[in-house]
Amino acid sequence: MKILGIETSCDETAVSIVEAQGDFNTPVFTVLGNALYSQVKLHAEFGGVYPNLAKREHARNLVPLLEKTLTEAEVYFIGGKEFSEAQKTTLEELFSHEPELLKQFLVQIPKLATPDIDAIAVTHGPGLEPALWVGINFANALGLIWGKPVIPINHMEGHIFSAMLQEKSEARNPKLEIGATQFPILALLISGGHTELVLMKNWFEYELIGETLDDAVGEAFDKVGRMLSLPYPGGPEISKLAEKSRMSGEKPAYPLPRPMLKSDTCDFSFAGLKTAVLYTLKKIPELSENKKEHIAHEFENAVTEVLVVKTKKALEKTSARTLVLGGGVSANIHIRRSFKKLVEREFPGVALLIPEEKLTTDNAVMIAVAGYFRALQGIPAGAELRARGELRLA
């Protein structure tokens, strides 16, 4: 089965084609084509993602990325046919808010014969609704023209599957496998918009164990990055400074709190930590590079300690057999290192799954993989496909 994946939940525009075979127990995925356009540089001047700019860039780039992916997957065939008037009317309605995408679609897509794919998987939430709608409308338009089913995918579910994928070859078309997975699975999902602990009792059976009560961890990294006058996104920049401080062997000079560390719940809070950084900076008359390193070091330590302690509590509460880290913040070196130590020292019977760095960011491979599993489960007939910015797993 070949799945076309489309991801436009935030500031990455991504398209992929993944060939999948096997059942839930022995799936094998071959990435036939994969294209991604990051908007990070465009949003840097705003210090965060600007929704209408993200929407515009998705509309500009989806068709070129699709063509690139189809070519790479060797399913790009010239020889399509002109759209009927009824199809044009439907497309005009679908793309009523994306005139540039409509123009590209009307020019380029009729040139293509229907590619050798079986279904289209698209992110329908959570995320920025203006951005989500662009991908959804694009997927619906392709489904209409090519006669393919469209499968709605929860973005966070995609991140869970991305952590399970293990690359088995480095050939032109990498093969990815999911090993024998032991349930229950506890997923710590950490990104710019999310911090939550979700228990997967079985395939697609979720229970929320804990979540942030205010800022997401990635949001906190970015806000502290701005306080330190670091380039956007702040997370990787803070990580660089923190690692430099650790290498020096110096103990961080500015202590910061660990919010909700001793609470009985598995919930998180990072707003107070962010505020503590702000008050600390106000007390420093001249912020040298060394002082920035100390603050980055202590901030990252505080965040990591909270994540580890809360996850440890959740592992004890749920008796999970597998721990999954997913989302953009799972690329953080110190966080990855700390969770490996946690499992090795205290939970040797738990399998720890962390995505390869290239799969930590938003990507369409994880959406296609999730689409395959949803297809195995059975695509819900007549499911309403709409943007759901606050969509939850549980």
UniProtKB/TrEMBL annotation:
InterPro entries tied to this protein: ATPase_NBD, Gcp-like_dom, KAE1/TsaD, TsaD
CDD domains to which the protein is assigned, alphabetical: ASKHA_NBD_TsaD_bac
Annotated protein name in UniProt: tRNA N6-adenosine threonylcarbamoyltransferase
Binding site for substrate: L189, I190, S191, G192, G193, D222, G235, N332
Protein task: Required for the formation of a threonylcarbamoyl group on adenosine at position 37 (t(6)A37) in tRNAs that read codons beginning with adenine. Is involved in the transfer of the threonylcarbamoyl moiety of threonylcarbamoyl-AMP (TC-AMP) to the N6 group of A37, together with TsaE and TsaB. TsaD likely plays a direct catalytic role in this reaction.
Cofactor field: Fe(2+)
Gene Ontology MF term list: iron ion binding; tRNA N(6)-L-threonylcarbamoyladenine synthase activity
Domain of life: Bacteria
Domain Gcp-like intervals: 30-75, 111-368
Cofactor detail note: Binds 1 Fe(2+) ion per subunit.
UniProt EC number: 2.3.1.234
Catalytic activity: L-threonylcarbamoyladenylate + adenosine(37) in tRNA = N(6)-L-threonylcarbamoyladenosine(37) in tRNA + AMP + H(+)
Binding annotation for Fe cation: H155, H159, D362
A cellular-component GO term for this protein: cytoplasm
Keywords: Acyltransferase, Cytoplasm, Iron, Metal-binding, Transferase, tRNA processing
Chief place of localization: cytoplasm
Compartment(s) where it occurs, according to its Swiss-Prot or TrEMBL record: Cytoplasm
Gene Ontology biological-process annotations: tRNA threonylcarbamoyladenosine modification
Family: Belongs to the KAE1 / TsaD family.
